[in-house]
């Protein structure tokens, strides 16, 4: 019950709103609908919520001014679902906003099957006892070496490592495929990539050496951090065995998957090149050199501008002269190598002539593109704004826009990795997980059951509000206001709260008529959960399907702000208000008999 509301143009109105009903507030644009719904009811609900915090917490939140109203009674906790884009953050997606992606991360961490990004083989893991059994059974009668992998594909001389191993009593190591004696203090090229394995034991495998094999495996797994390598000198091959997920051929191992491995907002899962954004800043060549017919002196390279005596142009002139050109040569007459040197820099030091009376200087010419990228990332704001004129965003070459590191992209469920699932439309996603629930067996089915149930329920709510065409990887900042509002509506339905007052701002805007009924049913579902739903709306179907209608008017601005009618939709039809006349069909918006004459031109959309 609202008594004496005077916010904006409201004329000291009193209004009763039924709880646990779908109520529509309607009237002319500017009549005071939003003033009642958002600036009175929602503002007072927010103020009362903040008042529940202690004084220390309130100082960080700031106070909310009490709306100009005498009294509001029976007010539930209020959630406003307005028409505005959810987030401007480039990391926010449909999947993160709806929390469906969080469920997918949990599913892939617990049920995902790992595959090697080197060979594509299924990754395997063994218990310590299973490793011993494999060595005894598959290498019986053979001479083998049990090795502990220490270094995989890294540069360095590793003198300290060899010294440490020697002090611990080890005598042999396998370096880049060759057995070396540690007592000789092997010297490695620090600039080359090396593979180093520690030789833990050499033996002939027989039935009576089980304890020795077990002890050697335990030592190898300790030094190899859960991994070991068996070198069969008879068969002339090797294999990797691990407590962790490991590729049986290449020997690469994955850490045990956790949900943050599949999060592009976590350093554990984000692509290292684009930091989980899926895009990187790149320089657009056609913006730097828009007209190749010009010479550099005439301003062909826009980033440099027209020629003026300066240190930069002296460097450019020296680069050109080293290729037999000068500042007056048009760009189109230069070889690609010349333009590449100007844009990307030169490996060779450059001798640049200084002013008269000063000796020449040798400098390293870094190039125009590296300079622009440096200013775009680290320069002052004015320099960043300048650099933006020459850059654009392109898909990351490392992750192909998937945002995740390659390890995360090689866990699959039902043949798809998490990025491929996020690229499915909501309709396809809903069907995919319904089928996936039938295809999983054993432990995987038990673990996935509740997660799949929640994913299909939440994707079903998105379908109900007409968002079947969206994908989970769609950036939240590309959504329209109506789409963002309906996503929040679907999220609130999935939250299954009770006793809440929801206020929505024209949710039918932008919806095709066929989706309107689905939206109304979603609002009724929210109401049936024990909530009160208030909708600011002009839509006829919404009004007729509501339980209560409040018509504000009779006009707009200073001519509005009064309650014209309030009650069930059928009672509203008997009123003489502007809204009632249109609902009854007394007034209509007529379709023009003739259209305005155009210019004769047309715009064709394909």
Explain how this protein is built.
This protein has 20 helices and 23 strands. The chain has 606 residues and is α+β, with helices and mostly antiparallel strands. Helix 4 packs antiparallel against helix 15 (442-464). The longest helix has 23 residues, at 442-464. The relative contact order is 0.15.
Task: Detail the topology: elements first, then pairings.
Elements: E1 2-5, E2 13-15, E3 22-27, H1 33-51, H2 55-61, E4 69-72, E5 78-81, H3 94-98, H4 100-111, E6 113-114, H5 128-138, E7 143-155, H6 159-167, E8 172-175, E9 178-181, E10 193-204, H7 210-223, E11 227-232, E12 237-242, E13 245-246, E14 253-254, E15 279-283, H8 285-288, H9 311-322, H10 336-344, E16 350-352, E17 361-363, H11 368-378, H12 381-388, E18 391-395, E19 411-412, H13 418-422, H14 426-439, H15 442-464, H16 481-495, E20 501-505, H17 513-528, E21 532-536, H18 540-544, E22 548-553, E23 562-567, H19 569-572, H20 578-584
Parallel strand pairs: 3-21, 3-22, 5-20, 20-21
Antiparallel strand pairs: 1-2, 1-4, 6-19, 7-10, 7-11, 8-9, 8-10, 11-12, 13-14, 15-18, 16-17, 22-23
């Amino acid at each position: 019950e609202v008594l004496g509301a005077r916010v904006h143009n409201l004329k000291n109105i009193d209004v009763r709103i039924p709880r646990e009903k779908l109520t529509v507030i309607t009237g002319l644009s500017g009549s005071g609908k939003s003033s009642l719904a958002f600036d009175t009811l929602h503002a007072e609900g927010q103020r009362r919520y903040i008042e529940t915090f202690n004084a220390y917490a309130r100082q960080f939140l700031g106070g909310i001014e009490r709306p100009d109203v005498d009294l509001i009674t029976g007010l539930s906790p209020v959630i406003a679902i307005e028409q505005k884009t959810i987030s401007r953050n480039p990391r926010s997606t449909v999947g993160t906003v709806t929390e469906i992606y969080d469920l997918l991360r949990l599913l892939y961490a617990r049920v995902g099957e790992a595959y090697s990004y080197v060979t594509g083989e299924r990754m395997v893991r063994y218990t310590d006892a299973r490793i011993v059994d494999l060595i005894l059974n598959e290498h019986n009668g053979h001479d083998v070496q049990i090795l502990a992998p220490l270094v995989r594909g890294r540069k360095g001389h590793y003198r300290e490592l060899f010294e440490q191993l020697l002090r611990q009593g080890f005598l042999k190591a396998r370096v880049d495929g060759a057995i070396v004696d540690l007592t000789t203090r092997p010297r490695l090229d620090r600039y080359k990539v090396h593979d180093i394995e520690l030789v833990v034991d050499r033996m002939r495998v027989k039935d009576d050496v089980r304890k020795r094999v077990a002890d050697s495996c335990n030592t190898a797994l300790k030094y190899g951090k859960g991994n070991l390598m068996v070198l069969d000198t008879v068969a002339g091959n090797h294999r990797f065995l691990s407590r962790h997920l490991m590729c049986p051929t290449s020997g690469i191992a994955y850490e045990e998957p956790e949900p943050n491995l599949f999060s592009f907002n976590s350093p554990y899962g984000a692509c290292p090149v684009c930091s989980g954004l899926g895009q990187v800043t790149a320089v657009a060549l056609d913006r730097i050199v828009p007209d190749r017919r010009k010479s550099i002196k005439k301003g062909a390279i826009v980033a440099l501008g027209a020629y003026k005596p300066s240190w930069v142009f002296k460097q450019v002139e020296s680069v050109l002269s080293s290729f037999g050109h000068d500042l007056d040569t048009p760009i189109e007459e230069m070889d690609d190598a010349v333009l590449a040197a100007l844009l990307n820099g030169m490996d060779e030091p450059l001798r640049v002539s200084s002013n008269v009376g000063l000796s020449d200087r040798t400098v390293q010419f870094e190039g125009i593109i590296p300079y622009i990228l440096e200013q775009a990332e680290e320069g002052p704001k004015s320099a960043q704004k300048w650099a933006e004129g020459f850059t654009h965003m392109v898909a990351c070459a490392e992750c192909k826009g998937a945002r995740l590191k390659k390890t995360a992209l090689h866990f699959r469920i039902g043949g798809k990795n998490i990025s491929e699932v996020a690229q499915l439309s909501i309709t396809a996603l809903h069907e995919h997980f319904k089928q996936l629930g039938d295809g999983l067996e054993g432990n995987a089915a038990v673990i996935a059951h509740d997660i799949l149930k929640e994913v299909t329920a939440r994707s079903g709510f998105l379908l109900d509000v007409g968002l079947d065409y969206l994908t989970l990887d769609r950036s939240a900042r590309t959504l329209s206001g109506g789409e963002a509002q309906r996503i929040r509506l679907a999220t609130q339905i999935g939250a299954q709260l009770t006793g809440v007052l929801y206020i929505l701002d024209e949710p039918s805007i932008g919806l095709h008529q066929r989706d309107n009924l689905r939206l109304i049913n979603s609002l009724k579902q929210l109401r049936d959960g024990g909530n009160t739903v208030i909708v600011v709306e002009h839509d006829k179907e919404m009004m007729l399907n509501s339980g209560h209608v409040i018509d504000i008017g009779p006009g707009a601005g200073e001519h509005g702000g009064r309650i014209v009618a309030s009650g069930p939709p059928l009672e509203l039809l008997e009123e003489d208000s502007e809204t009632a006349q249109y609902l009854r069909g007394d007034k209509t918006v007529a379709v023009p008999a003739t259209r305005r004459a155009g210019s004769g031109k047309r715009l064709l959309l394909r």
